[in-house]
Design brief:
Length: 227
């Protein structure tokens, strides 16, 4: 399981830290406000009160060793930028930073943010899913609590038919299409083509490299195997 640092415990950061921890992730929660830190202390692996722009303070708590850091600092955009830069300089592989406008998102990307979250438009629940289930390639919300997703076919599904997998019964999701890539010989050359199997039948077998297009509740989708 990857290790996460959630920096900035406003409404979005607090909820994201709790959701990640509830799913068993190793989470370090950080804020400069002691009350916020105390409010989540018993729900995460570690909760610390410190200045997220202070490289030595971050290193002292092992934040330079996390796999993903989410910068949710909301009070000061300058602090958000400095925290993003500091985390990248410390060698954190993935830094995701909070932005409330397109211009701010562009600035954060330029200073090193690997991705940008707009908490006014995206929920902590959806980001929890993105962080813990990276095999989900795309998600479209159909209604509250239900989505259509594109999922790279897990290894445990390979060479099994939809009837054998019985995803509706076993995982409470429905496969509405499969996107498949094949290589063909054309004019003596290998050509890669993509095609879509719409409304696949029960005898359709899942192959390595397939992209499954599924519909289900967010909870059901999160319970799909990762490999």
């Amino acid at each position: 399981m990857e290790r996460f640092a959630v920096i900035g415990l406003g409404r979005f950061g607090m909820m994201l830290a709790r959701l990640l921890a509830q799913d068993g992730a190793d989470v370090i929660a950080v804020d400069s406000d002691k009350e916020c830190v105390d409010a989540i202390r018993d729900q995460v692996s570690l909760a610390v009160c410190l200045d997220a722009t202070d490289a030595e303070a971050l290193k002292s708590q092992g934040i330079d060793k996390v796999d993903v850091a989410i910068v949710g600092v909301g009070d000061s955009f300058e602090d958000s930028v400095l925290a993003t830069v500091t985390l990248k300089e410390l060698g954190v592989p993935t830094v995701i930073s909070r932005a409330t406008s397109r211009v701010r998102a562009e600035i954060l990307s330029r200073v090193g943010a690997d991705d940008v979250v707009n908490p006014e438009k995206e929920s902590a629940l959806r980001w929890k899913s993105r962080l813990l289930a990276p095999s989900i390639m795309e998600r479209i919300e159909l209604a509250e609590g239900a989505s259509l997703v594109q999922l790279e076919s897990p290894e445990s599904f390979h060479n099994k038919t939809l009837a054998q997998l019985d995803l509706r019964k076993g995982y409470r999701v429905n496969v509405v299409a499969i996107r498949r890539t094949v290589e063909e010989i054309e004019g003596g050359q290998t050509v890669t083509r993509q095609f879509v199997i719409s409304v696949p039948a029960g005898d359709t077998a899942i192959k390595k490299g397939d992209t499954l297009i599924l519909i289900g509740t967010d909870e059901a989708i999160e319970n799909l195997p990762a490999n």
